[in-house]
């Protein structure tokens, strides 16, 4: 059981409003967690400075801003993110946006991954939004476009990971949120699986938030998930 390799696969989502609370959680988790995600909630509450702090002490940071704008804005935004030393950043998987992101990260170590379809969406949400196809169809189409454009990986539900891997290959990243250990609440996610199921389906990295951050014992919760990932590697 390679726990070190498993820890590299776990990304803890710091979906917290308070910087002080986030720092306290990071201190508590210690060496058990090496990779953190910062999104809108914490990012706009001072999380970008926290990202720099985490990078300075050797942690990896996934900046999940899901950029989608005119090409120049995305390109320059990604370039600025790359200069921070961030490991991963997200854009929405629209072709123009992805092309701009690839240009923006050129010459850096930043990996840009594209969000195909949000994991809170199902086919009913697609109908409401005016899409004519299904979630799975759009995920497959956007994954193929991302591969052709040169994106480093895909964000998708673990239920789509196997199909996405067939499209983009085994050398690309597949990052999956909506991960819930057996017996935990689904919360607002609709397409969820357990950590072991996700790894076996082809996911390279798992994003886990509330099952760790809201746990009575976050360290124990993280250790349990790391052990489950290790068992599936």
TrEMBL record:
The protein's role, per its UniProt record: Catalyzes the decarboxylation of orotidine 5'-monophosphate (OMP) to uridine 5'-monophosphate (UMP).
Annotated SUPFAM superfamilies: Ribulose-phoshate binding barrel (SSF51366)
Top-rank EC class of the record's enzyme: lyase
Protein family membership: Belongs to the OMP decarboxylase family. Type 1 subfamily.
Keywords annotated in UniProt: Decarboxylase, Lyase, Pyrimidine biosynthesis
InterPro entries with a match to the protein in the record: Aldolase_TIM, OMPdecase, OMPdecase_AS, OMPdecase_bac, OMPdeCOase_dom, RibuloseP-bd_barrel
Organism: Hohaiivirga grylli
Known pathway: Pyrimidine metabolism; UMP biosynthesis via de novo pathway; UMP from orotate: step 2/2
Transmembrane stretches, start-end: none
Binding positions (substrate): 15, 37, 64-73, 119, 180, 189, 209-210
Catalytic site: 66
Molecular function GO labels: orotidine-5'-phosphate decarboxylase activity
Catalytic activity: orotidine 5'-phosphate + H(+) = UMP + CO2
Keyword check for tRNA-binding: no
Designated name of the protein: Orotidine 5'-phosphate decarboxylase
Orotidine 5'-phosphate decarboxylase domain boundaries: 9-225
């Amino acid at each position: 059981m390679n726990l070190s390799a498993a820890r590299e696969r776990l990304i803890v989502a710091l979906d917290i409003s308070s910087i002080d609370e986030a720092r306290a959680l990071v201190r508590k988790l210690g060496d058990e967690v090496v990779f953190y995600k910062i999104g809108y909630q914490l990012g706009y509450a001072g999380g970008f400075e926290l990202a720099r702090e985490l990078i300075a002490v050797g942690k990896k940071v996934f900046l999940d801003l899901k950029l989608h704008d005119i090409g120049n804005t995305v390109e320059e935004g990604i370039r600025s993110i790359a200069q921070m030393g961030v490991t991963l950043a997200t854009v929405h998987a629209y072709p123009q946006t992805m092309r701009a992101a690839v240009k923006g990260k050129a010459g850096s170590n930043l990996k840009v991954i594209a969000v195909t379809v949000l994991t809170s969406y199902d086919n009913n949400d697609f109908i409401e939004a005016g899409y004519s196809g299904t979630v799975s169809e759009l995920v497959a189409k956007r994954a193929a476009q991302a591969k052709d454009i040169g994106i480093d990986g895909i964000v998708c539900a673990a239920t789509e990971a196997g199909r996405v891997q067939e499209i983009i290959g085994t050398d690309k990243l597949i990052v999956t949120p909506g991960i819930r250990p057996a017996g935990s609440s689904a919360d607002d996610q609709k397409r969820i699986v357990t950590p072991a199921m996700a790894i076996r389906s082809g996911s390279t990295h798992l994003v886990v938030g509330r099952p760790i951050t809201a746990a009575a014992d976050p360290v124990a919760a993280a250790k349990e998930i790391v052990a489950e990932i290790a068992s599936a590697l």
